[in-house]
Amino acid sequence: MSLGTVEIVSFGYLHDAPPAAHLTVDLREHFRDPHVSPELRYMTALDEPVRVAVMNTPGIADLVTSVAAAVTAFASGPSAGKVTVADGCAGGRHRAPTFANALAERLRADGHTVTVHHRDLAKPVVNR
């Protein structure tokens, strides 16, 4: 039995405005950006070293758990429909897609039906 349908969209604030969502998670200020590491800068969340760096950041696992609980609360509402979560970082290539995939894995384990879209993952690295 599915608890609810969830759409997760990862994005980069430096590319465009955040997508419309019920919950928007801004990962920019509180979590270290792999972009600052030259060896990770041109990789993406599709690369294991980036995923390890992001998921080993203090607080990320707790945030996944907290956002999953919030999604379940939204999905439990009396007029529950699809719940959309947008999570963003600066460029949308490292933190946001890694977080989105971890959240999707958690929500699926909890019984939700989940789709994930990485809006800016394939865009070029933003020079800043």
UniProtKB/TrEMBL annotation:
InterPro entries: RapZ-like, RapZ_C. Residues 5-121 form the RapZ C-terminal domain. It comes from the Bacteria. This is ATPase. It comes from Actinacidiphila acididurans.
